[in-house]
Write a structure and sequence with these properties.
Length: about 180
């Protein structure tokens, strides 16, 4: 069965949304409080959608979205001002306060889309590229004591600052290793 993850900084927000969805017959919801928890749950369970706020304690929703599988959609609930700042067009959005009906209808739509959802803007990374990025993250984690999320953010920021692709930045990090560690 497909799961839905509810991920908000405040657990009571997730619990309230879970009650609303369950009252409409939408079951199989998991509650997470951080982007790291979401990533672990997505690896462990078959997750169709993540419903979250614009940011979690450890990462923004947009950054988390980049780590989700293509089969998993994201719905962000936030103020209109926050939603307007988001740049990724593949993320579904509902301004808060959101009506019960709009929330339920949107989640049902995401569930119906399920694994048929295709994102042409964000093609899946080839395994060999992902391996280079993972190696660069491991190097940063070992050498600089970073968490995986910090290493990923570091690579993303360096990539954006330089205008290079993430894979190019990761390769530069690996190439800069001179063995003195």
């Amino acid at each position: 069965m497909d799961q839905i993850i509810l991920a908000f900084e405040r657990e009571n927000s997730s619990r309230r949304l879970k009650e609303i969805l369950e009252s409409a017959g939408i079951t199989g919801t998991l509650i997470c409080a951080s982007a790291d928890q979401v990533r672990r749950a997505v690896r462990k369970f078959r997750v169709s959608a993540v419903v979250c706020g614009h940011k979690l304690g450890d990462q923004s929703a947009e950054m988390l979205f980049e780590d989700l599988p293509l089969s998993c959609s994201m719905l962000v609930l936030a103020s209109q001002e926050r939603l307007e700042l988001m740049q990724n067009e593949d993320i579904f959005r509902l301004p808060t306060p959101v009506s019960r009906r709009d929330l339920i209808n949107t989640v049902w739509m995401l569930l119906r889309m399920g694994h048929r959802l295709e994102r042409f803007v964000r093609p899946q990374r080839p395994p060999e590229e992902q391996a280079v990025i993972d190696d660069a993250k491991r190097l940063l984690m070992n050498r600089n004591g970073m968490t995986e999320e910090q290493a990923h953010r570091f690579l993303q920021k360096k990539s954006m600052d330089s205008g290079a692709k993430l894979i190019q930045t990761a390769q530069l990090v690996l190439d800069s290793t001179d063995g003195t560690g």
